[in-house]
């Protein structure tokens, strides 16, 4: 069984916005994503960022840091990390600790997700989704990035990642976020 621990931090956001990011929601998205992806890993699926890890690493508690920020900070972070000068919905920073270091730690640090509240809310509204459904989708999407999946590498990779997202979200009670997309 996988144990997942989440730490949520906030930038300069009002309390009512911070309250939207319920730790249980984030925890559920992380736990379900890890449960499903761990089963796939045991069947032979490779995680690009964790190829050298032994199975015993996955028995440790898995930690995830989530940071919610406002548009200006998100834009600056996106520019710094990806060279793109706009606020994006989510940024993923995988842990890059070597396996030898992970052997010494009592937990497996997955990395950090940074969400821009204004972009998440705007996208949810534009797509006619609840904030919670869109947030859950982005959390699943971000965790998959932390495991090494990348939809920007090509169509095959995008379809694989979207397939994982659809499967995981369905088990979390969230509708297929790509149902209206045309391919």
TrEMBL record:
Binds 1 zinc ion. PROSITE patterns: UPF0054. Its cofactor is Zn(2+). Its EC number is 3.1.-.-. It comes from the Bacteria. Single strand-specific metallo-endoribonuclease involved in late-stage 70S ribosome quality control and in maturation of the 3' terminus of the 16S rRNA. This is Endoribonuclease YbeY. It comes from Moraxella caviae.
């Amino acid at each position: 069984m996988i144990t997942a621990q989440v730490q949520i931090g906030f930038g300069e956001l009002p309390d009512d916005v911070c309250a939207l990011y319920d730790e249980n929601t984030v925890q559920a998205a992380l736990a379900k994503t890890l449960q499903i992806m761990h089963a796939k890993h045991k069947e032979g699926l490779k995680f690009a960022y964790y190829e050298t890890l032994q199975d015993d690493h996955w028995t440790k508690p898995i930690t995830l840091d989530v940071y919610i920020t406002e548009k200006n900070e998100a834009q600056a972070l996106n520019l710094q990390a990806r060279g793109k000068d706009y606020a994006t919905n989510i940024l993923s920073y995988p842990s890059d600790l070597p396996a030898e270091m992970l052997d010494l730690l009592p937990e497996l640090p997955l990395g950090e997700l940074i969400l821009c509240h204004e972009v998440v809310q705007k996208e949810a509204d534009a797509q006619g989704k609840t904030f919670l459904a869109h947030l859950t989708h982005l959390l699943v999407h971000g965790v998959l990035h932390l495991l090494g999946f990348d939809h920007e590498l090509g169509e095959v990779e995008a379809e694989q990642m979207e397939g994982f997202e659809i499967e995981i979200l369905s088990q979390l009670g969230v509708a297929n976020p790509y149902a209206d997309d045309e391919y």
